Amino acid sequence: MSKETTEATSGAKRHGGRYIYEELRKQILTLKLKPGVPLDEVSLAAQFGLSRSPVRDALARLISEGLVTILPNRTLLVTPFEIEEFPNYISALDLIQRAVTRLAAMHRTDEDLLRIRGADAAYLDAVSAGDFQAMSETNKALHMAIAEAGKNPYFISYYEKLLGEGQRLLHLHFDYIVSTASSSTSLGRDHDEIVDAIQARNPDEAEKAAHEHTMLFRQRFLAYLQQNLTEKMSVG
């Protein structure tokens, strides 16, 4: 096989793996693939019309993000989420969200602020369009821009994992959020106090706003659960 052919084949595999990763990630985050559902390399390879190698690469990336779990017997499944663990999730999210937001207010540069403002504008556009998938992705991008402005790679890595889990929770109750918000604009304005405090370089106000933001998410999710008490409480 020529060098050109080898490189083309390798490129196709990388592209195929990236496509599979993006498609599976979207299906997991939007709950098309439910928590706890088993995943099989052979079936996925047949579904996507590719070899098992790019499927394996995509699954490895999803495992590293915490969206897919590998059991001791090598079984793969969409990472379960037990509703009973929600208080623990909120506790972890609250602590890390307060920390990264405080650090952003302390260390952000003008370039960081531009990225944060741009990410917030993209989120507002998604809210206005009523695009749930775009809302969850742009919300994550905004919070990651804030974390990156804080300049602590350990916090950034852990925060990204928590936000990924949070995307699935958002999709569980997006309809509820939109239907109970006074308007799409009020929903989109959730981040104003955080961004303004970061711009003002006020770490105390930034941390306070981040905590209130987490509590708002908690309040909305618990209200959603109350409205859906007849459903099974565990999605794992």
TrEMBL record:
<dbReference type="InterPro" id="IPR000524">
    <property type="entry name" value="Tscrpt_reg_HTH_GntR"/>
</dbReference>
<dbReference type="InterPro" id="IPR011711">
    <property type="entry name" value="GntR_C"/>
</dbReference>
<dbReference type="GO" id="GO:0003700">
    <property type="term" value="F:DNA-binding transcription factor activity"/>
</dbReference>
<keyword id="KW-0805">Transcription regulation</keyword>
<keyword id="KW-0804">Transcription</keyword>
<dbReference type="Pfam" id="PF00392">
    <property type="entry name" value="GntR"/>
</dbReference>
<protein>
    <submittedName>
        <fullName>GntR family transcriptional regulator</fullName>
    </submittedName>
</protein>
<feature type="domain" description="HTH gntR-type">
    <location>
        <begin position="14"/>
        <end position="81"/>
    </location>
</feature>
<dbReference type="InterPro" id="IPR036388">
    <property type="entry name" value="WH-like_DNA-bd_sf"/>
</dbReference>
<dbReference type="Pfam" id="PF07729">
    <property type="entry name" value="FCD"/>
</dbReference>
<keyword id="KW-0238">DNA-binding</keyword>
<dbReference type="InterPro" id="IPR008920">
    <property type="entry name" value="TF_FadR/GntR_C"/>
</dbReference>
<dbReference type="InterPro" id="IPR036390">
    <property type="entry name" value="WH_DNA-bd_sf"/>
</dbReference>
<dbReference type="GO" id="GO:0003677">
    <property type="term" value="F:DNA binding"/>
</dbReference>
